[in-house]
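The instructor's notes for this session suggest beginning with a concrete chain rather than abstract definitions. Hand out the sequence below and ask the class to guess, before any prediction is shown, which regions might be ordered.
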Amino acid sequence: MSGFIEENHEHKLELRKHQHAQPSRPGAPSQDLMSFWGYKFETVSVIPDQWDKTPREFIETRENVVVNNHAQYCSVVKTGIGKAKMLIGGEVDALWDCKPENRDDPINWVELKTSAEIVNDKDMLRYERKLLKYWIQSFLLGVPKIIVGFRSQRGILQRLEELETKNIPGMVKRQGKGTWDGNLCINFTAAFLDCESFTACDFVSANASSGLKQTITSDGIWRIRRRERSPVIEVFKNEEYGYGDVLSPAFVEWRTGRDANKADIGAAKARLIDPIIQETN
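After discussion, reveal the predicted structure:
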């Protein structure tokens, strides 16, 4: 049985709305302003085509371009963690150069991030936790490079840092505070997706007796939830039928029709071939 997992957009929007409603510290920028800084960094960092195909006028005046947070690529990756095979799709910011002509070659995706300049240990700890999110997102989508723009408290770009996604866990282990471990993250996810023994499943949750593969055994929309500060991951059915927003009604109708046509063609072939086989015998 195939399963579809989608981010809970309603919860994400509510969480973002709650964060933006919180009053900023005296002298600190608002959440809306910091979001704008991030989108502005993306706008001035990219061009709509390759360098030699982009007009000089656009290149030299792109810092005046109106910010647009809708333009994006989508990376679709077939991968696996442990025994679970997955097809993952997600938003990616940019290309480093151009898409390869051979579709089997990897694409040089680039993810763009912004972060406050690091001035003390507290800032370093906060940035290290950000690196976990950066690494997970880029690792799963096959993004090899992340460019971080460090800004001042006033939103002025101070410096750039290029990170190789594959090197981030080792960098945190060697140079950071050791707040997270990449191997532990991968092993945890593998155990959660496909638990076959009680020991492995017990590693996922103190109250769990099975992972996703053994829990989700029927169609419908399921929800994966971990409440704040809770060690338990909950898996429960949210709706008996449907695909949520993962598959559009138009796609489901097309796929269902295609499968029905295949069945009709198979039946027609059988009707033609069976008499020939019987006559030969």
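Then share the key points. The chain is about 40% helix and 20% strand. The CA atoms of residues 3 and 135 lie 24 Å apart.
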